[in-house]
Amino acid sequence: MAAPPLCASLGVDVEKLAEALRFHDEAPASTDFGAALVVIHRGHVIAESYTTGSEGGPQPWTRQTCNDITSSTKSVFGTAVGVFLKEFSDDISLETPLVGTSQNDSLIPQIWEQPLTDERKTLMKVKHALSMTSGHESREPWLAPSPRMHTPGYAGPLQMYAYSFGWWRFIEGVPAHDTLMFEPGTAFYSNYGLELMALAMKNMSGEEVGPYVYDRVLKAIGMPVGIRENRYTLMPYTDDYEHNWSDEAGWGSGGGEGCNAYGADSSSASPLGPNSIAGSTFRCTARDFARLGYLWLRNGRWGGAQLVPQEWLRVATTRYVQSRGDSANYGFTFWIMDEVRKQLSSFPHFL
């Protein structure tokens, strides 16, 4: 796609932009499996391109195609968390215990319906879940559904939250969560604490992640209303190159009737119903994902409204220091790119 005439008036090097578009369109990853590119400068879409792959992906890939953004879902979830922590600031903070020492002082009292599978889970705080240091094994059961069994001595629904509790496991090939890999806050990278945080948010707000963040943020930035309620349940990954394509935006769902997402078993009823998967499987168009990127770049502000607390995005995009003094290039649901941050600070017109 050629760069629009408006590029010259914005000071864009049209030839360099065209070179970038060609690189995107001709890269093997694009020609094999398809790809989407949207370039925004000073609030204007100055270029976009959609490439249909010869070996996989949507046929054809268009502006309406929704792509599973996989682990970038964490940052969408983190956006909701920032709003949630402000809304419920009298009751919860980053230092609040997630599991607690009893059912009465737990943000997720459901975990106390059976004995804890690992006493170290009582040490887990909100900050550990959001910084990916909760201690859970990280590898994900993409090839759902697959054979599963309860952890010896435990019972309950074969659903996402119960998997994170350690109440059930896959028979082979996928890690269990009954025992933590490490004490919370002492190492990195650990996915499943996010699912417990999502449950805590549902317990306190009475809403799923999808409706919660749509009503407070995504609606205001122009994302489609269908994303509020749409849950997709099938996870058709069969190899490293297959993704969940669709013409509908939405969240992956880890429980409920007809659901096999992450291996959740629809035949095992959960009193909680379906729960949005916080760590992965959010899907939207490239343009809508660019809207989120622009919201983050503008420190949570959209037009004249501060949709996400600016201070939260500052904290979330600052390296989290673990209890032993170590730090990874990660904050709270956001990867940290210090060099890019330095470069952007030299160009205030971008912000």
Summary of the model, kept short:
By secondary structure, this protein is of the alpha+beta class. It has helices at residues 6-9, 14-26, 28-33, 73-87, 126-130, 160-165, 193-205, 209-218, 226-229, 286-297, 310-316, 338-345; strands spanning 35-41, 44-51, 67-68, 148-150, 168-170, 231-232, 251-252, 283-284, 301-302, 305-306.
Describe, in plain words, how this protein is organized in 3D.
The chain is α+β, with helices and mostly antiparallel strands. The protein has helices spanning 6-9, 14-26, 28-33, 73-87, 126-130, 160-165, 193-205, 209-218, 226-229, 286-297, 310-316, 338-345, and strands at residues 35-41, 44-51, 67-68, 148-150, 168-170, 231-232, 251-252, 283-284, 301-302, 305-306. It has a domain at 70-283 and 322-350. Helix content is 29%, strand content 9%. The strands form five sheets. A two-stranded antiparallel sheet has the order 1-2. Strands 3-8 form a two-stranded antiparallel sheet. A two-stranded antiparallel ribbon has the order 4-5. Helix 4 runs parallel beside helix 7 (193-205) and helix 4 packs across helix 8 (209-218). The mean pLDDT is 88.
